[in-house]
Design brief:
Immunoglobulin-like, 3 helices, four-stranded antiparallel β-sheet, three-stranded antiparallel β-sheet, alpha+beta, 33% strand, 3 domains
């Protein structure tokens, strides 16, 4: 007769009265657990045939899903925690990672430490992600400030003083005056029009202009037409975010 001895471990309770029941490799025992807490079944061990294990278990150890989930969620949260705006998702993930990790540790405590390593790593990564979210918050605030400065250049006046065509090269020149109370940089977009239709455009940057000061700017572009070209200021914005070149 073949040996029916199976690997000892915790498995779903075949009686359905508890969450897990311990199988000692030969038969079921009265050791049971529910929600990570161990008990002794007062009714004793079930009277199944010696060596029987639940279908599909193959005598394997109980699952460590919570511990692995904590590890994965904590790792992903740490990777994205520094990103502006996305850090909010990382903060949520950090909280969930700690919760899953604690549940994984409780489960490991009653299952001979099975999955404890993943649970501990998940908690550590989640805590690190929560701390990294501070960087994400500061980065988000910096991005919002840069975008706000770009979209709101303050009070100003601008005019074009020259628009000349030489062959296919068009040159424009103008002045911009800072009417605000603080020094300001400007990003000026100039359109080159043929019969009222934009043929080409160019963007120039004017460095810090003090309050009340007027600065001159120049722009050039090539147009593929021999028709008369007119120049027009299309838009005036503040400095590009983080001084990214505006090609």
């Amino acid at each position: 007769m073949s040996d029916q001895r199976a690997a000892a471990g915790w498995f779903p309770d075949p009686t359905g009265r508890f969450e897990f029941r311990y199988h000692n490799g030969v038969q079921w025992t009265a050791d049971v657990s529910v929600g990570g807490r161990r008990f002794v079944d007062q009714s004793g061990a079930p009277t199944w045939n010696a060596g029987w294990t639940p279908p599909g278990t193959g005598g394997q150890l109980p699952g460590k899903g919570m511990a692995v989930t904590s590890f994965i969620v904590g790792l992903v949260s740490l990777v994205i925690a520094w990103l502006p705006f996305i850090f909010v998702l990382a903060a949520i993930g950090a909280v969930l990672g700690v919760v899953f990790g604690v549940l994984g540790l409780r489960n490991a405590a009653v299952h001979e430490g099975y999955g404890r390593g993943y649970a501990v790593a998940g908690v550590v990564l989640s805590v690190a992600a929560a701390l990294m979210c501070v960087v994400g918050f500061l980065f988000t605030r910096a991005v919002m400030r840069e975008v706000s400065d770009f979209l709101d250049p303050g009070e100003y006046s601008v005019e074009l003083t020259r628009c000349e065509t030489e062959g296919t090269l068009v040159s424009a020149e103008g002045n911009i005056t800072n009417l605000g109370d603080d020094a300001q940089a400007y990003t000026i977009t100039i359109d080159y029009l043929v019969n009222g239709v934009r043929e080409e455009s160019d963007t120039v940057t004017v460095s810090q202009v003090r309050p009340g000061e007027t600065m001159t700017f120049e722009a050039t572009a090539f147009v593929n037409t021999a028709a008369a070209v007119t120049c027009e200021v299309n838009d005036v914005l503040g400095p590009t975010p983080f001084d990214v070149p505006n090609d």
